[in-house]
Design brief:
Mean pLDDT: 89
Oligomer: single chain
Number of domains: 1
Distance between the termini: 31 Å
Number of strands: 4
Strand order of the largest sheet: 1-2-4-3
Order of helices and strands: HHHEHEEEHHHHHHHHHH
Largest sheet: 4 strands, mixed
Helix content: 55-70%
Strand content: 5-15%
Radius of gyration: 19 Å
Amino acid sequence: MAARKRFPGISSDAFVSENDRRALAALKRVPLLPKIVQKFYEVGLDRWFYCYNMSMSVRCGPKQYRTLYEIMRESCAVLDMPEPELYVSSNPFPNAYTSGVERPYVTLRSSIIDTLSDEQLYHLMGHELGHVKAGHTLYKSVASVIAPLLELIGRRTFGLGDAASIALVMALSEWYRQAELSADRAGLLVSQSLDLSIDANLALCAGPNRLSHEMSREAFMDQARAYQDMSALDSIGKVVIFLLMGATYTHPMPVHRTQELERWVLTGAFERIMQGDYPRSEKAA
């Protein structure tokens, strides 16, 4: 692949979706949120998460998992952002996550490294770095421990019917899912190939298996478009599934995500950024 284009001074506004912004605004209007965030800092959970991750994962660097480290460094250069710490942890279920409010870090599970090619890992890395650049880490961290935080401030959780708690959990879950769509756009800006980003989502959706050579990008996109074009009755079913089951997942449905990424490309926004037309940060302006 040709050398990746870099985007000097690029702002997260270039890839953060309007739905992400609206969901965040709605989340910030929930009265219970400031108290939850205050308790998150009081308890020191950010530091606890950092220490736990360091105790259970291998930190990457020039002498440790150099290939992953170089992918991360190049991805940071593309998005014009500081380098977070990068870790690898042992886990048979492919995934990656970003955390750390004061000290951001990205952790890749060992199985995701086996699932994706080096080129596909650029999409994944860009996705995770997009969370950091967009400032998602605080609310992502809060979302991961929302139930115990509610208990700490004496609120009843979902099962016991506290309306304020339910409102916060639902708003946080909706924002979390929309933030994933924004991060996918950052992944595409780093992979710089829609085909590569689609292949990465396809591989993650199917998981590692011995027949992965039979995967079809075209068939996957046909499936994604069919999912979006379902009848009104089926669409109601999608909404119900999204609300009832989607809240149990930190990542929205991969098929939906892939179609949303294609739709963003079709607006011309991706190509404009590739040509150097993108919002810049105040420092770069």
